[in-house]
Amino acid sequence: MKTSENMSKGRRTVIRTSALGLVGLSLSPLASAGEKTQSQHFGTTTEIVPKHFPNIDPEIVSEVVGKSHSNLERVKELVDKRPELARSVWEWRFGDFESAIGAASHVGRRDIVQYLIQKGARPTIFTFAMMGVHDVVKSMVEFYPGIQRTMGPHGISLLDHAYYGERMNDKMTYTEMDNLKKTIDYLESLGDAGGETYMDETKQEQKKFLGDYKYGEGEKDGFTISLNMRDKMTLGPIGGFGGALLKTKDNLYIYNGSPSVTVTFTAQDNTVTSLTLRTPDTTVNATKI
């Protein structure tokens, strides 16, 4: 004989089973639809998704900025395919940021600058100074006095950008050359558009700093101090190129116009034994080898 308790248990069992059944019925089509959608999605993928997707491969960005210093044809190959690359920006090291148009600007490549602007690059006061857009440069300085002291990529001054504008004077019109001269004369008249002044050193003084410095056991755990084409000391990874070191005091330098990055050399009996590189967050001691 079924008791009321047994009947209640039975009803609860039926209800529970029915509820699960309803849930199962309602979820099964959804689950199947989800599986089907996922299967269809992956079924239409014909290429391997790039490692950095949806971001552009950093090596491509680096190449666009690097080639914008000198190689118009390669820049066109890259940017014609993806015009947004005309706005590429790269950090070389220690906050030394450079755009593709910034690269072309500080080496006086008017042709590369003009191409990049056509493709959507964003010109700056450094671009206008190099191109000799006198009225624009003057208006910007008058609107924001002191902007002429702002340093460009690699710590290159606004006035130096204007000087580099003369690089392609054999391909410039008379009007372009006249406007560039006006720009240079104006910036020179300001007296402070040439950037900071740093201490000089002789080649004999530089010689004691040159070489490799290690801070770890890894093959690349270190720095190389060498000279660049302008006979300025540079710091880069071991065996690689680097940014200029600008002397502020004896044995004390800042990196490439980045005032928060300093390099201090330690010497004994006029022989350099180590360096200490400091950023706001990291201090690295490296021994000369």
Mean pLDDT: 87
Helix percentage: 40-55%
* CATH topology description of the largest domain: Serine Threonine Protein Phosphatase 5, Tetratricopeptide repeat
Shape: globular
- Biggest sheet details: 8 strands, antiparallel, barrel
Number of domains: 2
**C-alpha Rg (nearest Å):** 31 Å
Q: What series of H and E elements makes up the topology?
A: HHHEEHHHHHHHEEEEEEEE
List segments where confidence is low: pLDDT < 50 over at least 5 consecutive residues. Answer: 6-40
Number of strands: 10
Can you name the CATH architecture of the largest domain? Alpha Horseshoe
Strand content: 15-25%
Strand order of the largest sheet: 3-4-5-6-7-8-9-10
Q: Tell me the structural class.
A: alpha+beta
Number of helices: 10
CATH class of the largest domain: Mainly Alpha
Short description:
By secondary structure, this protein is of the alpha+beta class. The protein has helices spanning 4-43, 58-67, 72-81, 100-106, 110-118, 125-131, 134-143, 158-164, 174-190, 203-207; strands spanning 89-91, 97-99, 211-214, 222-227, 233-237, 243-249, 252-255, 258-268, 271-278, 283-288.
Keywords:
2 domains; 289 residues; eight-stranded antiparallel barrel; Serine Threonine Protein Phosphatase 5, Tetratricopeptide repeat; 42% helix; globular; two-stranded antiparallel sheet; alpha+beta
How would you describe this structure to a colleague?
By secondary structure, the protein is an alpha+beta fold. Helices cover 42% and strands 20% of the residues. It has 10 helices and 10 strands. The strands form 2 sheets. It has an 8-stranded antiparallel β-barrel with strand order 3-4-5-6-7-8-9-10. A two-stranded antiparallel ribbon has the order 1-2. The radius of gyration is 31 Å and the shape is globular. The model is unreliable at 6-40 (pLDDT under 50).
